[in-house]
Amino acid sequence: MMFRFDNSYVRLGDAFHSRVLPTPVAAPRLLKLNRALAVELGLDPDALSSPEGVEVLAGNRLPAQAEPIAAAYSGHQFGHFNPHMGDGRAILLGEIVTPSGARVDIQLKGSGPTPYARRGDGRAALGPVLREYIVAEAMYALGVPTTRSLAAVATGEPVYRETALPGGVLTRVAASHIRIGTFQYFASRGDMEGLRALADHVVARHYPDLVGAADPYAALLEGVVERQAKLIAQWLCIGFIHGVMNTDNMTVSGETIDYGPCAFMEAYDPGAVFSSIDRQARYAYANQPSIAQWNLARLAECLVPLFVDEAGSVERANAALATFRTHFQDAYLDGLRAKLGLREARDDDGSLALDLFERMAANKVDFTLLFRRLCDAAQTSDADAQVAALFEDPSAFAAFVEKWRARLASEAGDDAERAQAMRRVNPAFIPRNHRVEAAIEAAVMRDDLSVFEELVAVLAHPYDDQPEHADYMLPARPEERVTQTFCGT
Ligand code: AMP
Ligand code: MG
After folding, report:
1. Residues above pLDDT 90, as percent of the chain
2. CA 132 to centroid of ligand 2, rounded, Å
3. Which of 13, 110, 374, 478 has the greatest number of CB atoms lying within 10 Å of its CB?
């Protein structure tokens, strides 16, 4: 048997989901299996890559004891509430408990229409499947909480978007797929019983320390606020732009989910937007903390009616939401200190970082490369010229580097050790948009997976110098630059 399912979400009852079978595809072909993840999950990678295994990953064969479902949820999409969402093209095969005791969802994305598909075809194009595969695994290797990618399968069938495109199915692994939008689904229907059951499930599953708390629902809100604040701080520290931070794309577990039109910033720009559908720049790079807080306010609205202390509920919810700023600021400042190699926390650390960012913005400096080269400069000023060369006006670095070095000199510690510590937080390799596009293009247009394979391998070790892959560190040349990303749904 391949999966030992234990489907706690199914047991919550019919109000939470629709039972639905994946729709078989014409000619499934395994493009990628994440063997290391399979082992981590206690699954047999050889069984998964066997013909029967590939049929499972394509939705053509149901594993024994599977109880496949599509989950119901709602969501605010670009600020507008949509009560009728749900898994339109994703099917939860089931939950398994890994050898290390973690409970995870195994979900097929692109496996055919569900009762929530509305006018959609329930399918995914191969390009976005590979994109999610690459970026989710890169995020994991970067140390950011995220859903994972277990497999990518080509369906052998076309999907029709603006043109006919090859179809794909992604096998996604997540702590759970429960979103803020899942809470909104029950709250908007006034289903208090469902809402409470959902909250109890989430507390037990994701916040076990809160079981038995005096007010578990208030504590749950506080817990989600804290995890999301820390998550967004991590995003900012690596230049990640999610692109569609709708409330249905924000988990309550604190994992990043739904890699659609996401992107990594190259030249530092707080207003950076890549998503073709984000015309108002709602989900711009530097807007992500306030948007997360806005989304969490929507979660608070759902949870307040459950709070044990009714009289103090609104006050406590507002206090919980207010902690977003402090959790975020603390995590973000800690992240920036580590990026800059500062061991001690001092009052003016924020302004030191801000000064650098202003110079970077004015000089279109590559965010990732700047911090990676700064690691070398922490060890020896011989490397300063390499950093300065990233600025349109190299002299813009001079005033900063003097201040920064004086600050480092005022702290105890060994330069080489500091540089090493900086290399553990400032990645050499991120999924640069043009690299992701090139990998997709080769796979989709030329059936050549070697570009994808090499990219995935490089991104698995983002903090290591990989001299043989030094070109992966480089920003796009002007003619390679990707300025827009698409969700491809
Ligand atoms: P997303 O942009 O992937 O977060 O999807 C937003 C909503 O649209 C979710 O409810 C999806 O299930 C649904 N959806 C997106 N693409 C499709 C599709 N091709 N078929 C059916 N539903 C879809
Ligand atoms: Mg979504």
Report:
1. 97
2. 12
3. 110
